[in-house]
Amino acid sequence: MSTPPTTAPPEGPLTVLNPATEEVVATVPATTAAQVDAAVVRAAKAQSGWAALAPGDRARLLRRFADAVDGAIDELAALEVRQAGHTLGNARWEAGNVRDLLEYAAAGIERLTGRQIPVAGGLNVTFHEPLGVVGVIAPWNFPMPIAAWGFAPALAAGNAVLLKPAETTPLTALRLAELALAAGLPEGLFQVLPGHGTVAGRALVDHPGVRKIVFTGSTAVGKEIMARCAGQLKRITLELGGKSPNIVFADADLARAAAAAPMSFLDNTGQDCCARTRILVQREVYDDFLALVAPAVAAVRVGDPADPATEMGPLISALQRDRVNAYLTPDQKVVAQGEAPSGPGFWCPPTLLAPEDPTSPAAVEEIFGPVAVILPFTDEADALRLANATRYGLSGSLWTRDLGRALRMARGVNAGNLSVNSHSSVRYWTPFGGFGESGLGRELGPDALAHFTETKNVFFSTEE
Ligand code: NAD
After folding, report:
1. Which residue, by CA, sits nearest to atom 4 of ligand 1?
2. Total structural domains in the chain?
3. Within the chain, what is the greatest distance between any pair of CA atoms?
4. 239 is catalytic
5. 248, 383 Cβ separation under 8 angstroms
6. Is the pLDDT of residue 448 over 80?
7. DSSP assigned state of 198
8. What SS3 class is residue 240?
């Protein structure tokens, strides 16, 4: 069923650091494999009662959970600023997104209808049966929203959820579980299991009582989870990395495209799987575009994430800063760079690179930091060739005033989420997910609840 770990599993409590100051915010006990087993038993017990509730009653309880989150937005946002270094504005939006996801999922419960399909000699109907216990393994880059993309529809569809937050960011998830209980969700139905990925995460993946894993994180861990789930034919949804293009044609509104480009890769300090980190610009306007975008990148306000004027905070950890710095080698051609605080904190300045070689690591690998590359292209075919020259396929943006070109390019780019003349990509009511090594399956959107069910077909004979 599973490959044994090659190194000794990590032990001990989780130390949560403030990434802006390196001060210890909290120490949290790490869930052991035996505690995961016990949590699955509690969850299974709670799930059978939850699935048996009238749909309207389940919906009401989820709306109460949403209200509790709404009442705690300031508190949750402050916690996210401290544990993840998110800017205050982003953190408030993220807590509000959890509320919205719960309300949207709650509204789906009474609408999770099956079908009546015409057959001879009887009645044929389909039911959406809940899966049972679902494991959600969340990353540290958007600890609240990404967890809720899994737990809100999973709960709404009648499942219990075990959520394992990332090692560095367990605090908002733990608070959400308290709010769920206070709102009246049954004990055991939604449990948060902070812990190490290779201990608590693996225990969830390997447990036969967990019927689906929703994972967001690195492609390497996603592949391992897929392989381990195969042994049990366990359902999976994977949201993995990205190296998304931002394609600017000569006919675009260059000023608008240049104004939008910096935050399309610097928001959340570039720790965003949808970050537009490959800026592809048609050669005849390349110099003009660079002249507009370079000062805009350098002007981004980097600093204390709790200051409402700050646009970009620190990276999540020293490890992540080391990973990002590994791409900023002295041979790189830096065409724009901003400022970052010195002293404590995991800081990295906004940086735009212009690599000679479009296949170099900085141009094709996910850096997950405030770094993008800018590359010229000649025509549509060349833009498509460059855009599709990575193993990823999550997001992308196209800037052009030519509708036909926008449509041709949108159909040609291998990515799950594209945006024309803007950078929007994630809305809780539209489907989200990746092509290629960016993932498997879709989250969010009108089908979100159905992804946490099995379709059952039942035929009732009317023969006497
Ligand atoms: P990761 O994939 O190691 O961790 C993500 C989650 O998976 C965490 O909760 C972690 O505890 C858990 N996990 C780790 N190993 C596991 C295992 N063997 N079994 C079960 N669960 C396990 O991500 P990371 O190391 O924190 O970040 C590394 C890189 O991944 C980043 O630099 C970035 O490129 C990418 N990343 C992408 C996303 C995304 O949104 N797609 C999010 C985080 C990280």
Report:
1. 217
2. 2
3. 83
4. yes
5. no
6. yes
7. I
8. coil
Cα separation, 225 vs 197, in Å, equals 11
For residue 3, being part of any structural domain is answered with no
Edge-to-edge order in the sheet of strand 122-130: 116-117, 122-130, 453-461
- The verdict on 296 and 180 lying in the same domain is no
Whole domain around residue 320: which residue ranges? 245-427
- For the record, the structure tokens of 329 come out as 């080698």
Domain assignment present for 6: no
454 is a catalytic site residue? no
Task: Summarize pLDDT for 24-75 with one digit per residue, the tens.
Answer: 999 999 999 999 999 999 999 999 999 999 999 999 999 999 999 999 999 9
**Ligand 1, pocket-test mutation among 7, 137, 236, 239, most atoms within 8 A of CB:** 137
**Same domain as 419, residue 443:** no
Catalytic residue among 229, 273, 274, 348: 273
**Judgement on whether residues 217 and 254 belong to the same structural domain of the protein:** no
Cβ of 202 closer than 6 Å to ligand 1, yes or no, is yes
Centre of ligand 1 from the C-alpha of residue 373, in Å = 23
Give the DSSP H/E element, type plus range, for residue 292: helix 286-298
Per residue in 247-261, pLDDT tens? 999 999 999 999 999
* Reported pTM: 0.96
